[in-house]
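To: structure desk
From: M.T.
Subject: fold request, one chain
Message: Could you run this one when you get a chance? Sequence is below, nothing fancy, just the single chain.
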Amino acid sequence: MKQEQISLEDFIAIGINHWKASVPIREKFSLTTEERRPFLSDAKDKGLTDVIILSTCNRTEILARCKNEEMLIDLLLKHTSGTREDFDRSGFVKKGEEAVKQLFRVSAGLDAQILGDLQIIKQVKEAYDLATEMKMVDSLLHRLMQFIFRAHKRSRNETDLATGAATTAYAAVKFAQQRLGSLSGKNIVLIGTGKIGKITCKNLISLGASKVTLVNRNLARAEALGDRFDLPTAKFEDIREIIEGSDLVIVATGAETPVITESHVRGMKGKKKVLLDLSVPRNIDPMVGDLPDIELVNMDMLSDTTDKAYKKRQKNIPLVEAIIEEELDGYKKWLDEQKIVPTIIALNNKMEKIRYAEIKRFQKRYPSQDITEVEILTRRIINKIVAHPIDHLKGNQETPDLADAIDSIFKLKSNRK
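Reply: Done. Structure tokens follow.
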């Protein structure tokens, strides 16, 4: 019995990202690592074998081998607080080659809010590692990811896309620098010392900030980063007092609900403050932005399109697109090869079975003979016999009738896909 045909058309991508969905919508569809686990378990229960979930501040996207887009959408809605109306208005569905190409472009940084984003490939690898851990990656998705990772590596080595390439954290710090005129001498509070917090802290220092106070609910984590950069720390319980004396507050935690609310900033007197929220879901209550002398900035307000480095990176987009096309073609070729592999294996096995039977017959007739040379000779003969049909198969992978013919001629049971 033949298995299903392998094809790019097996893939579907669905998701929500920054191109059409604002932060309030994106946060509804956000999935933490722990929330992705039951999603993948559910997908497995529904018979899916290849599913990868990417959820960042700018996107929640799923690529899967799936025949039914509604199944994926239902899973997304079940495991998030997003509604079908939200998805229909702001989401996307891509099928086949376009679905696969979406993950290529995201991984290379072409689909990022900050062109060439340095963080996205790490997030893709983490998503792949989780899918692998949950046993939701078979050979087709595994091989696809190798082509995707190679496309990313080539985009960095063969183009200037990475030249001056930024991250969202860097764009946020640059934004603050423009708003404040300079970071030097400004009182800055950084709340959150995880991955994004550490990158943000490094960027603050590199762009001239010196008066930075680190805050984390886990004070030990803040102190560890403070020791690294020789910066002071503060307890989260003292956050109102710390914010009151600040010029800039940057919040980048993994909290599911706001850590800064109106009560933390209402009634403050003095200078105007800039508050940057780098989290999705948002970590600063949107109502804070309505308070006097407060400028609240979220992810959607950040951009590097006016930066000179961006314009240089932008010129490399066609080069990266060409690399993606080459690697995608490589994957399509590999997929075509998989269609004939069962026939090649079955042909070799059939010939080896015949060879083995004949050698056994020879041994019975001439038990005293050394068959080493016979083994070598017969193996060489078999290899020469099968070489031509195998080469012909490899040269005509797109012609399924040829593999059918070889299956029939040699009476193979290849179970070919």
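Reply (cont.): The first helix runs from residue 23 to 26. Let me know if you need anything else for the meeting.
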